[in-house]
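Lab meeting prep.
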Amino acid sequence: MAEEYSRAIYAAVKNYLDAEDYNYEWNTDRNWFRFNMKLNGKVPRALCTIQIRSDAFLMIARTEVAAGEADRGRVAEYLCRANYGLVQGCFEMDFNDGEIRYRTYTHCGSLIPERETIERGILIALAMLQRYGDGLVAVMFDVQSPEEACRQAEAQ
């Protein structure tokens, strides 16, 4: 049985996605929207999920590339360096399969999120994959150290 979710938050997010002409699917069993977004750079696409909860929505933008087992230590260092100082959201990596994603969490409480709030929750995740994507690939292929790649991403 699916966890209960806010119909008001669902409607607000759906209205935003429809207004922006996103091509998405809704999964009733898991209470999430799914769609893909094209990115520029070495990470060409984000696989996006917006999970609707009872008082919040969660945006997860996953990369198509996963860190190989031998690379996970360097990638974890890169992501940890990238996370330092970030205000909204964070990078995550699953050490079991190497999946890499950026997550934002928007608490709404009993309020219905406004368009700008929804947009910020979505676009921040995509912007972070865009900003740090080339460095991520450089670290995965051992072209740059995590420190160099992070410094370069943040200098842009």
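Slide two material, second protein:
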Amino acid sequence: MASAYCLYDESFSALKAAELIVQTFVYSALIYFGLSYAGRSSPGPMLALLSFMPVSTGRFWLMSIYIAMYLFSPFLNFGLSKMSQAQHKACIAVMLFMFCAVPGILVYADPYNVVGGRTLLWFATLYVTAVYFKKYDAGEYSGEPVICKGKGRLFFAYICCAAVTLLARVFLPGLFNTIFGKNDYFMSIYG
């Protein structure tokens, strides 16, 4: 989100995209050679392929997605610059519904392949949201202290959500394995 916040006003540079790809390649190769030399990794053709093509193989998935977002950002920026504030809010709402709510409701299917958050669709959702904050100064800090009413209730809600998540992680696998037999159903819900 921080990168998107900054990229909205930045002009696209093919040189910067190439630099990102080269940097990722160099770090990947150095890690490969360093671990191989130290005896921490057994060099082999598959590992070499993954290490020398880190962006296209997704070896470093975060950089692969970041580079894809950087290449896609001029098009997103153009579309977002043409939207009204209401359209932008609606776009965020639709994206969050499709890529957060739907995978949470249809737990046995991932229709948009977004569970886990390692996809261009999810990063585009974060990008569109961050640009909204940038464009409309949502949440701009004025230097004045912010008084949050109901902080205790928010903290209690956070603790409850954390407890439910922990309990779900501990008890639901056994329950779902008993009901559905051994399968990945729980992990799709948890994801």
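Talking points for slide two:
The mean pLDDT is 81.
The two ends are 21 Å apart (CA to CA).
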